[in-house]
Write a structure and sequence with these properties.
This protein has 402 residues and is an alpha/beta fold. Helix content is 35%, strand content 20%. It binds (2S,3R,4R)-2,3,4,5-tetrahydroxy-N-oxo-pentanamide (EZ4) and cobalt (II) ion. (2S,3R,4R)-2,3,4,5-tetrahydroxy-N-oxo-pentanamide binds at residues 37, 160, 170, 210, 212, 262, 312, 314, 316, 389.
Length: 402
């Protein structure tokens, strides 16, 4: 069996998605997600100019060797762009492998450790009262875990809290929008927000919160300590993942669980965090973390240290990534939770999905492979449209992390 051809499909049904489709000489094809928010064309170019020509003629069943051909074989290792391309190749090859064996992907990853996976929804409000209302709406939809983000008094644009709250999309058309931020105002507000959410909704609902890398280690320590009484499921990206040692300070002083790594792209980003047990959940998703091959190894490595998974699953990752994630989540022992926001209807015109939300959980059917298909004609009706994630400044104008 040989790879006969491959193509990259870039489509914008509301937002840009990059999909790799790999064809084989026996008529079976596989799909992989290569979407990297704001850098879609860069990944597509790497796939088209190098990866696809290098794939032709290889046996698609050799997922391990092909992964290492593109990772080890390349002089320039890692990096979000390269790893998104490798991720898409790997996902598509596992899709082909499981279609050839006529079985859903999870069967090749250890079978089912559970029948359904716990997911968390997003509640994003422009202020405290609006946020409380939105938590209520998500709860009414059946979610039992909810990520709570709110606009902060005195800060004009809190990241991810859009004016159009029907859909979650942090990227804006064209070049990056500049947003302004003041950590002191946020730190004073966040504990008040969670106090009200707990008072209103009680102890039974799981609450999560994303800091988006905006604190220094000492600020994050204060936040993690002050949020302790409200028993968060997790506090996400409290500090930049670049400074791994910064997590030691938070860890020593607070029992608030920590999730980190949606911007990571290899197991090497996690070695200090995992071996020193500085975190509780790994966030790197299949689309950015080397596909099924590398993320399964990373999850197994974390498992040895009693660390669980909570993979990134925002709507700027495509349904192909989400479906692949569900297969992995069903199989691994140390699954924790999965981020889930439904895509817009237009996305489902392009991608034919095989997963379903019910009563706080996602399940997937037993279609062989990953189980997702793409309607290329529909995809071509939504051409690429440039969009960028915002950049962030302090209120005095200083460029800041985001
Ligand atoms: O910023 O998906 O936890 N979720 C997040 C998301 C990410 C975007 C980046 O493309 O932090 O909102
Ligand atoms: Co995040």
């Amino acid at each position: 069996m040989k790879i006969s051809d491959a193509k990259v499909i870039v489509s914008c049904p509301g937002r840009n998605f990059v999909t790799l489709k790999i064809f084989t000489d026996n008529g079976i094809y596989g799909l992989g997600d290569a979407t990297l928010n704001g850098m879609e064309k860069t990944v597509a170019t790497y796939l088209e100019s190098f990866c696809i020509p290098a794939l032709i003629g290889k046996d698609p069943r050799n997922t391990e060797d092909i992964w290492h051909y593109f990772y080890r074989g390349s002089y320039w290792k890692r990096g979000s762009v390269t790893m998104a391309a490798i991720s898409a190749i790997d996902m598509a090859l596992w899709d082909i492998k499981s279609k050839v064996l006529n079985t859903p992907l999870y069967n090749l990853l250890g079978g089912k450790s559970r029948e359904k996976i716990l997911v968390y929804a997003h509640a994003n409000g422009k202020d405290l009262d609006d946020t409380l209302e939105r938590v209520g709406l998500e709860k009414d939809k059946g979610f039992i875990a909810i990520r709570v983000q709110s606009g902060v008094p005195g800060i004009p644009d809190a990241y991810g809290v859009s004016k159009d709250t029907r859909f979650y999309e942090p990227a804006h058309k064209g070049l990056p929008q500049e947003e302004y931020w003041e950590t002191s105002k946020y730190l004073n507000f966040a504990p008040k927000l969670f106090e009200r959410v707990r008072k209103t909704f009680g102890e039974d609902i799981h609450l999560l919160h994303d800091v988006h890398h905006r604190c220094t280690p000492i600020e994050a320590t204060r936040l993690a300590k002050e949020l302790e009484p409200f028993h968060l499921f997790w506090l996400e990206d409290p500090v930049s993942g670049e400074l791994q040692e910064g997590l030691r300070l938070i860890r020593k002083q607070s029992s608030t669980p920590i999730a980190i790594g949606e911007v990571f792209n290899s197991v090497y980003d996690y070695t200090t965090l995992v071996t020193e047990q500085l975190i509780d959940y790994i966030r790197m998703p299949p689309v950015h973390g080397g596909g099924i091959t590398h993320l399964k190894k990373t999850a197994d490595f974390a498992s040895i240290y009693h660390i669980q998974t909570g993979f990134h699953g925002a709507t700027d990752l495509s349904p192909v990534n989400l479906a692949a994630t569900i297969h992995l989540n069903l199989a691994i022992n140390n699954f924790g939770i999965q981020e889930y926001m439904p895509h817009q209807d237009r996305v489902h015109e392009v991608f034919k999905i095989n997963y379903q939300f019910k009563d706080g959980y996602l399940c997937i059917d037993d279609t062989p492979g990953i189980g997702i298909d793409i309607d290329e004609e529909k995809a071509s009706e939504y051409p690429y449209s440039m969009a960028s994630l915002p950049v962030n400044r302090k209120t005095d104008g200083t460029m800041f992390y985001w």
